[in-house]
C-alpha cells in the first residue's frame, strides 16, 4: 500500500509511480508519445499561468476580469506546478542513467532535501511578487531548474503556504490523478 508523503523525497517516488502509469497505453487505445524535457518545461510554464489566474485581483494578470479569490484553488494550482517540477527531476535523473552516467540518487536526493529545507526561509526578503514571478520564469527558461524550484518554494511561502499545505494537497491530487488517467484526461478544445 502506498502511504501518505511525509517529505519531498516521498513526493519524488509518488511522482515516478504516476508518470509510469500515465506513460502507458490507455484503455481507449491512446498511446502517449515519449515525454521530452521541453514537454515538461512547457507543462511547468503552463501550470504557472494557470496558478496566476487563481491569484487575488491585486496580483492576477487578468485586470479586466472580475473574479472571486479562492485560496484553496490557488493552493491546488500551486501544487500542480510541483507535480511537473518533480516530473522534471525524475526525468533528468532517468536520462542521466540511460546515458550511462553513474547517477548517485543519494546526491540528488540530498540536493532536493536541501532545496526543500529552504522552504521556511524566504530567499528574496522584501522582493516584490512580480520580481519573484519573473525570476521563476527566467530560471525555468535559462535551464536553472534547481534555482527555479527554490524560487517556487519562496513564492509558496510568500503566498502563505507551507510544506504541509503542499504535501497534503499533492497527496489528495495524486490520488485523484491515479484514478482519472483512463477517465477524464481529455483535452477540450
Write out key terms for the chains shown:
7 helices; 189 residues; mainly alpha
Question: How do the helices and strands line up, and which of them pair or pack?
Answer:
Elements: H1 8-22, H2 37-52, H3 71-98, H4 105-117, H5 129-141, H6 145-158, H7 163-180
Helix pairs in contact: 1-3, 1-7, 2-3, 3-7, 5-6
What would you say this structure looks like, in words?
The chain has 189 residues and is mainly alpha-helical. Helices cover 62% and strands 0% of the residues. It has 7 helices and no strands. It has helices at residues 8-22, 37-52, 71-98, 105-117, 129-141, 145-158, 163-180. Helix 1 crosses helix 3 (71-98) and helix 2 packs antiparallel against helix 3. The longest helix is centred in the middle third of the chain and has 28 residues, at 71-98. The protein is globular, with a radius of gyration of 17 Å. The N and C termini lie far apart (37 Å). The mean pLDDT is 84.
What is the gist of this entry?
This protein has 189 residues and is an all-alpha fold.
| Uncertain residue segments | none
| Total count of helical runs of at least 4 residues | 7
Largest sheet: none
Mean pLDDT, rounded to whole units? 84
Series of H and E elements: HHHHHHH
Structural class: mainly alpha
Amino acid at each position: 500500500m502506498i502511504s501518505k508523503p511525509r517529505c519531498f523525497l516521498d513526493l519524488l517516488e509518488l511522482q515516478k509511480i504516476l508518470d509510469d502509469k500515465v506513460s502507458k497505453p490507455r484503455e481507449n487505445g491512446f498511446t502517449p508519445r515519449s515525454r521530452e524535457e521541453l514537454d515538461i518545461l512547457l507543462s511547468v510554464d503552463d501550470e504557472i499561468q494557470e496558478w496566476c489566474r487563481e491569484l487575488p485581483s491585486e496580483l492576477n494578470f487578468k485586470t479586466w476580469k472580475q473574479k472571486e479569490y479562492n485560496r484553496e484553488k490557488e493552493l491546488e494550482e500551486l501544487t500542480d506546478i510541483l507535480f511537473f517540477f518533480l516530473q522534471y527531476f525524475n526525468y533528468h535523473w532517468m536520462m542521466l542513467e540511460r546515458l550511462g552516467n553513474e547517477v548517485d540518487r543519494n546526491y540528488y536526493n540530498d540536493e532536493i532535501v536541501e532545496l526543500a529545507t529552504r522552504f521556511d526561509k524566504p530567499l528574496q526578503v522584501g522582493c516584490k511578487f512580480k520580481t519573484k514571478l519573473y525570476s521563476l520564469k527566467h530560471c525555468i527558461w535559462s535551464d536553472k531548474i534547481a534555482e527555479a524550484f527554490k524560487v517556487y518554494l519562496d513564492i509558496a511561502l510568500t503566498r502563505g503556504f507551507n510544506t504541509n499545505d503542499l504535501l497534503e494537497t499533492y497527496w489528495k491530487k495524486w490520488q485523484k490523478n491515479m484514478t482519472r488517467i483512463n477517465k477524464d484526461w481529455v483535452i477540450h478544445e
